Amino acid sequence: QVQLVESGGGLVQPGGSLRLSCAASGLTFSNYAMSWYRQAPGKERELVAAMPYGGASTNYADSVKGRFTISRDNAKNTVYLQMNSLKPEDTAVYYCKAVQVLNWNTYWGQGTQVTVSS
User: Fold this and answer.
1) In sequence order, what are the residues at sequence separation of 6 or more whose Cβ sits closer than 8 angstroms to the Cβ of residue 10?
2) Across the 118 residues of the chain, what is the mean pLDDT of every consecutive 10-residue run?
3) Contact assessment for residue 83 and residue 19, using Cβ atoms and an 8 Å cutoff
4) Beta carbons within 10 angstroms of residue 64's beta carbon
5) What is the spatial distance between Cα 57 and Cα 40, in angstroms, rounded to a whole number?
6) CA-closest candidate to residue 99, choices 37, 33, 52
7) Which uninterrupted H or E stretch holds 35?
8) Residue 56: per-residue pLDDT
9) What are phi and psi of 62, to 5 degrees?
10) What is the biggest distance separating any 2 CA atoms in the chain, rounded to whole angstroms?
11) Residue closest to 53 by CA, chosen among 76, 37, 36, 34
């Protein structure tokens, strides 16, 4: 059974930092492209950052470029999202997503709340 479990969310002041983690189990992690999405109240879920299974390249939403960094540790079956210089508009539930590179099987985590507020 595949499970993705996010952690690291919370309340932070504007300008602060958080690091989200997504621990995967029940899959061969190195065969999956990993990404982070977020969904704010009343808005559609949007892609924040993505990293292919090889980890050779990354993609970011324009709104987070230069502030967020996605990384993965295949030995720990974990993908991370380092978020710096946080803004109130970054407030959302953050989800990780795993996509198998051969058959496109897709899995989502349950989400972790990030709130940026003074």
Assistant:
1) 18, 113, 114, 115
2) 96 98 94 96 96 84 97 95 98 97 93 97
3) yes
4) 22
5) 26
6) 33
7) strand 32-39
8) 75
9) -55, -35
10) 45
11) 34
